[in-house]
Amino acid sequence: MRILHVLDHSLPMHSGYTFRTRAILKAQGALGWQVRGVTGLRHTAQGPDVEQAEGLTFHRTRGTAGGPPLVREWREVALLADRIVDVAREWQPDVLHAHSPALDGLAAVQAGKRLGLPVVYEIRAFWEDAAVGNGTGREGSLKYNLTRALEDEVVRSAGHVVTICQGLKDDLVARGYTADRITLMPNGVDLALFGTPAAPDPTLRAELELGDGPVIGFIGSFYDYEGLDDLIAAMPLLLDLQPQARLLLVGGGPVAEALQAQAQACPAAHAIRFVGRVPHDQVERYYALADIMAYPRKHSRLTDLVTPLKPLEAMAQGKLVAASDVGGHRELMTHGETGTLFAPDDPAACATALAGLIDARAGWDSMRRAARTHVEQAHDWARNVQRYEAVYQSLLGPSGRRQHRAA
């Protein structure tokens, strides 16, 4: 079986989006399927028209899409659709598998009609909600509603829809789409790449002046919806209960400067460390320093509907996880068994939960084992990728292959 994945961007760029893509393509390749990717104009890294990255093949779309809003996006879709058609006529895939945003899905639908190929559309988030969370959009605005309408059009037109979590599927069903046209493909971890924890580096710990007490960590992108301002606000309260605790923040993003200013003015400034962005191959060194990974996401439509990847990576690394009680986190963990949940948008609740988890050291190993087992059983890509086979076969028929036509 040959699957051509239609993508916003890909490796060698690094993001949560590209890491999920890598995991999917690697896992599908391990099943013996042939896979390639084609990216749109939003893949901005320099490189050849056909690029190899970590053993995977990606085709690039070239050109520019100028003009006013809507016209610009329409031209962007047209260029990507043309590129999909060119690659497909040469490589002869059985399925076009498009991944959100909806512009990719629309391009795949247009190309699929021209090629006579079935289209799977995979939704990783509703991008109108992601724009609100990132501070680049406003709920109920014209752009928000147009993006939602485009998503609806792609969902109606695709042969089958995949969502990364139950929250997204439930929302689509509430809009009137049939549940049996929507398959759940949960976020996962490639345990072959991310499943063996690194040993703590005492030299790095000393350089960061973390002391001997418990370390609370966050590794990821600094967006407002991640609630890191609440985590910083929780630190003075946590230090009243656990004076040796330290907070380690690794990453960067739009609110990084504001967070640093907040931390400098905070009574707990001496206990907060900002590392900035680190190379992806160095991330495990920082995970190894943390006892607890904290994910204090704020309550919003985005965080209620979408499951994040980072808590699963932390569980795979054998870390304790404390997270805000929003829908996306509840779908990933069970309070008191595989992690600790606390009220969102509430620094005091965050501090109390962290202090209680630190005090409960006798149960740490049990919770770590339960969390790791949960990842292995429900979120290991080597297992979950097999769900795609039923999706593809539902579109291709019992043979699992389309009858190729001459280009």
From TrEMBL:
Keyword Transferase: yes
Domain Glycosyltransferase subfamily 4-like N-terminal: 16-188
Family annotation (Pfam families): Glyco_trans_1_4 (PF13692), Glyco_trans_4_4 (PF13579)
Keyword set, alphabetical order: Transferase
Annotated CDD domains: GT4_WbuB-like
Keyword match Protein transport: no
GO molecular function: glycosyltransferase activity
PANTHER family per record: SULFOQUINOVOSYL TRANSFERASE SQD2 (PTHR45947:SF3)
Protein name: Glycosyltransferase, exosortase A system-associated
Organism: Alteraurantiacibacter buctensis
Lineage, highest ranks first: Bacteria, Pseudomonadati, Pseudomonadota, Alphaproteobacteria, Sphingomonadales
